[in-house]
Input
Amino acid sequence: MRAEGIVSASLGMLLVGVVTANSADLTAPALKASPAPISYNWSGCHIGVQGGGAWGTSRHTQDDFRDSRRLGFPMTDDFNVSGAEIGGTVGCDYQINNWVIGVENDISWTNKKGSANVLPSFTPVSNTFETNEKWLDTQRARLGFAWDHWFLYGTGGVAFARVGVNLCSPLAISCASTSHTVTGWTAGAGVEYAFWSNWSIKLEYLHVDLGTSFFPELQTPAVAGGNGVFLASDVKLTNNIVRAGLDYKFDWLSPITAKY
Output
């Protein structure tokens, strides 16, 4: 009897162990975590549109060697320029882990302008100088950190613009005008968000410094006394731009696309 009891108890413990093991095998798959979704990849080339507003400063300085007494004297104080800009963008980016590096080029039509009266050391003081900007082109590098659908970046490069100068006299019927293509630099920062498939929106700030450019010929219309007056001047121009954009990305540089 004693031996039979020992055998029965052993068989019972073995049966409990088997049932417990099978139960664990049945429930184990339900405890496994689902695989993590594929995150957004910023690698690829993109095209887009952008637009916004700009403000900055300009100043005209005397640079006519025939008036050596006032050579280098400011002909105006610093004055404000402002306006709107709208244009297109094209670029390419490549993502390595969470870091994204790329290049971008944009060109915009703009109506930025501003004017100021000639300073009293020049005559006639009723004359006004105007600085205006017709278009702006920036070619920049982008470097930043991507976190899934967000991309925070810094940007910088070279800038080109068509800058015009007007000299107007209240005694004249029209203003004298000239314009040049000038070169400068730009730097800024932005944030971009991929909101659907390959579409993204961005908000960007750029500072554009077009330096001081030489305008060798600017002749006023006929004023009191007969002939126009030749005025060579150096023109300084800076811009601050805040703009929004909409981009579409082509996955030419990456086989991984966004998953939603």
